[in-house]
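Sequence and structure are kept together here, with a separate record for every protein. An example record follows, reproduced without changes.
>
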Amino acid sequence: MELSIEKKMEDIVKTSETNDIEWALDDKENKGIYIRNNKFDTKIFVTWDALEKNDVKTILAQTVQGKDIDNITRVTGYLSVTSNWNKGKIAEFRDRYRVDINDCALN
C-alpha cells in the first residue's frame, strides 16, 4: 500500500499546475496524509481509503477549497480578468468608486 500512496502523491504533485503542493504522512495516528496547497494557503487531511478511491484530479480539486475563483471586471468597455494584474492595478481596483445601479435615478 505504501508504494501506491507514494506514486499517487507524486502524480498529485505533478498534476498541480503551480507545483505548490506539499504532503506529509499522518505520524500520530497513521490514518492518512496531509496535503497543503501553498498557492491557496489551504490544508486538507485525506484518509487512506479516500486516497485509494479518488482519482488525482478529485483530490487536487479538494485542496483548492473554492479559492480558485477569478474576478472579471469591466474597465472602459473591456472585460478583463484580474488574476494577471500587477499589485498596483489591483490596489487601484480596490480603491475604485463603485455605483449601485439601483441607486441611480432614471429620468
